[in-house]
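Same chain as my last thread, 216 residues:
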Amino acid sequence: MEKTKTIQNIERKMQGLDENSLRYKVLRNVINFKTSWIELGQSLYSVWKDKLYRDWGYLTFEAYASKEIGVRKETAMKLLRSYYFLEKEEPQYLKREISDPSDAANLPGYEAVNLLRLAKNKKEIDDSDYESLKKNVFEKGKDARDVRKDLTTLIRQREELDPQEARDKRKSAAVKRVVATLKALKNDIEIAKLLPSSTIKDIKDLIAKLEEEIAG
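reply #2:
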C-alpha cells in the first residue's frame, strides 16, 4: 500500500535519530499504531509525564503530538491514559500482552480501554458491572461503540433501580451549574463595579449556601 504523507514525514524525522532513543521509539510506534497502541501509549506517557517534548523543541505536548507524530492531542491523551490505566489497574493483562506481542492484532482498541477506565470511576458502576465490562473488552474484544452501549445500559439500569438517587444527581448537577454561573457573574460585577459591595456580599452568601447544599 502507498504510504501516507504522515508516515513519510515520520520516517524522515526518524532519519539521523538514535534508534535506541525514546524519540525514535515513539515515532516507530506511531507507524505501528494499529497493532502497537500499548507501546505507543507507554512512550507517550513518558514523553508527557517528563515533558520530554521540550527537549525536542516543542513548547507544548499538543504541538509535539500534532507536528512530530501527526496525532491530535485528544487522541494522544486517550492513548497515554489508556496505557496508564492498564499499568495501574490491570498490570497482569498488560504484562501478558507485552511479553507476547505476537497476538497484537487481537488487542482491544485504546478507545474501548479508555471507556473501561472511565467506567471504573463512575459511581453507578459496581464491581460486578466493571468485571462484566472488562470481560467484554479483554475477552470478547468488543469495540468502543459496543462498550459505550453496554456502559449506557448499565447506568440506565442503575438509575431505574434507584430513581431517587438519579433525581438527586440531576438536582446536584443543576445546582453546580448555577453556582458556576453565579461565580462568573460575581467576578464580572466586581471587576466592572456594577453593584454595591452589600449586593456582592449577598451573592457570595448565596453561592456559599448553594455549595453547602451540594456538599450535603
